[in-house]
Amino acid sequence: MAIYLYNTLTRNRDLFESIQEGKVHMYSCGPTVYWFAHVGNLRTYIFSDILHRLFLYHGFDVVFVMNITDVGHLTDDADAGEDKMLLAMRREGKTAYEIAQFYTNSFFEDLGRLHILPASIYPRATDHIKEQVEMIRSLEQNGFTYRTSDGIYFDTSRLTSYGMLSRQRAEEKQTGIRVNIGEKRSGTDFALWKFSPTDKQREMEWDSPWGKGFPGWHIECSAMSKKYLGIPFDIHTGGVDHIAVHHENEIAQTQGAQGCLEARFWMHADFLQVDGGKMSKSLGNLYTLDDLEKKGIHPLAYRYFVLQAHYRSKLNFTFEGLQSAQNALFHLFDLVRDWDPPNDEVSLSYKERFEQALDYDLNIPQILAMVWELVGDASINSSQKASTLLLFDKVLGFHLIDYVAKPLVIPQDVQVLINEREQARKMKDYHLADALRAEIQKKGFMLEDTEKGPKLHSF
Ligand code: AMP
Ligand code: ZN
């Protein structure tokens, strides 16, 4: 087995060799829990899930850390703007703890619905203030910090390697930064600790050697990855938007405080776009999994949609695309129901090609194509197809075991609802028809309207 993964640090598909034999230590930047995750965010978590599953598939002992950001992430990456958590508190009239709890739970539900395997640990930033303060102390002792009237900042000019991830020197980055840098010495310098306002108490604040305040956003990931994984660790992941600022700064902090590279591999998933642009609340094109479900798209169909594109290419979000992904997945479920049970005789040629595609930088689109090739392969009996497909599914994560060789049985109460819905549709009472469809969905079934009439799928 030789695993090659694209490393943003080297701009190469590098041979992956874990630091400790048989073990993989990986870290993914998790959500800021001030709002629901949108499907763009979730694309990035599906990517880290596939990576996680790659290592599990090969039998590695994986320690996977994903942080929960519940303080310090400002609305503006240049250390200005408001703390997103405080904005949410005002919006909803709740405490920071309640906000964090609510959106963290919602995030975990989304992960479950997408069959994303849980991380080993989800450390929260607010539970690790001490570790963050200690790291800032080390940076201070090593001469990488300075003080302004509003906080303690990292002095990027003191670190010769600054810019190694984005491959932009500090001076080059300046030209891209047009915001007012205030008292910062350089646009690339960033906050490690911010002081609470002097005139009033901040809702979330802690004592520190520099005064009451709160940590900057980047320090939590350096401090918590060090605590739970040790440095250097194997792989750090996130979305491509993290390359230039968040991950660059994480690398700088660990380099400054510990004198070593934080992680060997830095992997980034490209963006989910809408009409070639950003998915954002203000443009009204932001969707959550609930929004998709309201439009009849099952979360697993979203997973299938995402897996059709390689993680390093942009993916355009359209409902037509989602619908065809859903049709393909439903069709797969229907087909495998009629197969014979698996017999543990995996097709070795398919297995070999599957592993080649997987191990060469997670070529999941190729594996999906292989799924359909296998389904239509007349030279293999259905038991062997089932065993082989279930092997693929360890990584694809559709829980095909729930469908293989299990013909659909429609419960009586669901059949009654289907008949009632057909009746409502005939009477053109679409409101009632939709309500009945929702009722059917609650019972774990999804209706697809085909030319031959309604077709039922179960999850
Ligand atoms: P945030 O909660 O804003 O910190 O973002 C959580 C994760 O989602 C980060 O890894 C981001 O890089 C990623 N992300 C944000 N927007 C998108 C998008 N449109 N497509 C893919 N990933 C995204
Ligand atoms: Zn992070």
Automatic annotation (TrEMBL):
Q: Which InterPro entries match?
A: Cys-tRNA-ligase (IPR015803), Cys-tRNA/MSH_ligase (IPR024909), CysS_C (IPR056411), Rossmann-like_a/b/a_fold (IPR014729), tRNA-synt_1_cat_dom (IPR032678), tRNAsynth_Ia_anticodon-bd (IPR009080)
Cellular compartments annotated: Cytoplasm
Where is it chiefly localized? Answer: cytoplasm
Q: Does the keyword Zinc apply?
A: yes
The record's free-text note on cofactor binding: Binds 1 zinc ion per subunit.
List each copy of the tRNA synthetases class I catalytic domain by range: 16-326
Catalyzed reaction equations: tRNA(Cys) + L-cysteine + ATP = L-cysteinyl-tRNA(Cys) + AMP + diphosphate
Sequence motif 'HIGH' region, location on chain: 31-41
Q: Which cofactor does it need?
A: Zn(2+)
Q: For ATP, which residues are the binding ones?
A: 281
One of this protein's GO BP terms?
Answer: cysteinyl-tRNA aminoacylation
Share what the entry says about its subunit structure, partners included.
Monomer.
According to UniProt, the name of this protein is Cysteine--tRNA ligase
Originating species: Candidatus Uhrbacteria bacterium CG_4_9_14_3_um_filter_36_7
- UniProt gene name: cysS
